[in-house]
Amino acid sequence: LFPKLHLLDFLEKKKQMHELVCRTNYGFDLIASSYGEFQLANLYHAQKVRFIKHFIKVSLSYDFAVFDLGAGISRVTLDLERTADHTIILTTPQDLISGYACTRAGFYRFKQNEEQLEQKLPDYQPRLTFSPMLVINQVSNFRQGVKLFDTIKKWADKNINSVEDKFRIKPEYLGAIPYDRISLRAAEVKRKPLLFTSPHAKAAQSIHHMSSNLS
After folding, report:
1. Would you state the torsion angle of the CA atoms of residues 138, 144, 148, 149, taken in this order, to the nearest 10 degrees?
2. What percent of the chain has pLDDT over 70?
3. What is the pTM of this model?
4. What whole-number distance in Å separates Cα of residue 44 and Cα of residue 52?
């Protein structure tokens, strides 16, 4: 897909958010970002508030709305993550430490936001538990996915829950996706989603199973 309009058109106030929606033939629509745009990675507070406000308005027309956020723990990524109803952290066996680091950063941003709201709003009852859902991608088998999730959970208990008095982190396991080079390559060549090109592949069935759990 090569959308003509991108988020930069909205941020520069050239287009409204709803004008950016790109239709697809696969049961979802999307709003495209653009490559290498410094402005998108470094939004001002007013830009983030305006973006979130207009995105929520557009999302009301859909069953689900997904922020596909960049890797890492930048302030923009964490702030947009905090606006979502659910947080899904995607990692791999080769990058498990980064996956844990993202989980940890998400917790402390969650804690900071809740403490700020508690100070500003006298009647506010803070949420005390941060429960991100983890997906382990590119596993060799499903047992490996469970084992790696247990490792992240143990790290979180040892390094966060054991030293926090009030707030807690409780990671949830959404699932794992087996690495299937042949099926993934075929999807890339055909430029179609994996669930359309190889619906019976283990990776596709894993994604379908996880989506059922979310709904």
Report:
1. 90
2. 96
3. 0.87
4. 12
